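Journal club prep, notes for RB
We'll compare a predicted complex against what the paper describes. Inputs for the LLP case:
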Amino acid sequence: MAITLTKEAINRPGFDIDEENKLVFEGCRLEDLASNYGTPNYVFSENIIREKCREHIKAFDKCNIDYEVLYAGKAFLVQAMAHILNEEGMSLDASSGGEIYMALEGGFPAERIYFHGNNKSKEEIYFALEKNIGTIIIDNLCELELVEQIASILNKRANIMVRIIPGVDANTHEKIRTGQVDSKFGIPIQDFLNFFPAIIAKKHLIYQGIHCHIGSQLLNMQFYHLAAREMIEMIKSIEENYKVKTNILNLGGGLGVRYTQEDVPLSISEYVIQLVDRVKEICHEKQLAVPKILVEPGRAIIAEAGITLYTIGAIKEIKGLKKYLIVDGGMADNPRPSLYDARYEALIVNKFAMKPSETVTVAGRYCESGDVLIENISLPRAECGDLMVFFTTGAYHYAMSSNYNGFPRPPVILANNGKHGLMVQGETYQYLNQNHVIPDWLQQNRNKYNGNNSK
Ligand code: LLP
């Protein structure tokens, strides 16, 4: 039975219904994207990515302070993304040499890159300093020594910020909390003042400020405010104890997004304005100048810009218990349900205007019982060959994808107003094997047995 569905009823950014009643994303018919690129595939809306960047920048512009918005590359980074971010005037939080390399290859300016990570290797630090990236966020004291050593060998002075564990336990999934007292990221706040002399004593490092990141998928401001207070109090203590000015305060990322109807995030501008207001208030109370504020949104920029398309390849009903729709992807392109019990919403593209008539479980094709993408979703009666779209799959999907079970990763497509093109080609079997090597002694056996193991 068909129901009238409007664009508003789908209520997802970038979606529309065309004159032939087909579902379109960024002006591209989902059915066409599936037939052009095969499934599974990831599709990103260029307009949504740009809008989300602009929303951050516009909100900060209104606040009348010095600021920088760092996109957290770990959420999704490819060269085309680096290109868009650069055009939008964003900076970048890179968490590895690999991300720095990708950004530079995508034409991203080195000076706007901030290098994160709690165990940066020597090679990565050399690489970052040789490429003149803007700032290194020091995570621990071993790293402080290492960066000083390498900067001295290279005869450079490096801008640094230092990550602090603020001791704020944000209410989000435990695996994506990072500000609690026992976090593995940063220097415990109670030790920071004692360590500070070592930080400013380094001849090749220029102390710029402090950083914290309390967690991800945060749906209200309560914990940001607590963290801001801890951090500003620390800035005050540094000034009082050591007469050193902290120019920059980086409050991390973490703003949540809508995966399902139940997630009601703050808008980006509400988040920015409330955060900055609170920072100003606390600085005023402490009689401090407001430092330059940095934020590091990943998910808030890219999550809702991305969707995933799958084809249903098998349907299995276990009478009285469960009905499975099995799609041609799963935990290797979206590990979030199995890692964080993440929940998603989806539609059957070619039946999107039909009334839901059954409750099913959408499972993937990987050899793990835990490879379930959605438990209990109401959908119209599905058939093999139907196309499914999953919403809000832009963040930590492609970035966390794997080749489990020997499946090539899906292609990544950029769409803009009816245009579409590849940002990453789908992998091939050859690609999966390109780094495989058979050690020479095995090679000899292989020739000897010629593929026949029976002597
Ligand atoms: N800054 C730092 C230092 C971070 O560690 C992170 C995320 C961010 C910024 C960006 O956070 P966002 O705005 O994206 O929440 N794989 C998990 C998320 C891990 C987040 C890691 N750090 C997931 O899929 O939920």
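Talking point for the session: The pocket of LLP is lined by residues 72, 74-75, 93, 116, 176, 178, 213, 216-217, 252-255, 296-300, 336, 340, 395-396, 400 (CB under 6 Å).
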